[in-house]
Amino acid sequence: SQTIHQWPATLVQPVGSPLSLECTVEGTSNPNLYWYRQAAGRGLQLLFYSVGIGQISSEVPQNLSASRPQDRQFILSSKKLLLSDSGFYLCAWSRGQGATDTQYFGPGTRLTVL
Amino acid sequence: KNQVEQSPQSLIILEGKNCTLQCNYTVSPFSNLRWYKQDTGRGPVSLTIMTFSENTKSNGRYTATLDADTKQSSLHITASQLSDSASYICVVSPGNYGGSQGNLIFGKGTKLSVKP
After folding, report:
1. DSSP 3-state of B109
2. 21-40 in chain B: CB under 8 A from chain A
3. Average pLDDT in the A37-54 region?
4. Residue B37 forms beta bridges with which residues?
5. Nearest by Cα to B51 from B4, B100, B92, B5
């Protein structure tokens, strides 16, 4: 069976500090991978998605970046965090088999920027 | 503009009662609509998915309906349990799939609280 991991689960960082969130998927190969942010009282906002190693599509211009160094690893980074970066970050994967694909979400990372 | 609107924003019901959550969308062209359940502090979990030709889909005590003509969907929960307390998110996929799902339209969700 497939599993998706995210870490850390919780993170408190000062403004201006760097960020690295990691997501890994097990039990499948060549998945589509996604990073979302969920701010309080708001819907999920797609940040990045990837259909293959080294292929990253950005949805929202911001101070975040994403990388996919391995097939089942997706990393979300920032060089300098802003207060507005606080939120719940979710990684998801799908099989990339069409529009009726289901996205499977990870447990999320709660980021607080102070 | 492609949008998904959910109502109510929040709902409180007593254990054992039924409830219905609403989702209206303006997404066009339309491919499919999903309902996700998100427990507090957790990632969303898929409940149902319906394509254009499907009117209803059940998953245990959860029944989703879709009217593609009026662009409305509902999620009916029967005999609610305390574990149903969660946010329920309506997600619409446009009909221009381009190899990924980087264009899903998410609603803001309905927060359901089931009280004993």
Report:
1. coil
2. 31-32, 34
3. 89
4. B45, B88
5. B92
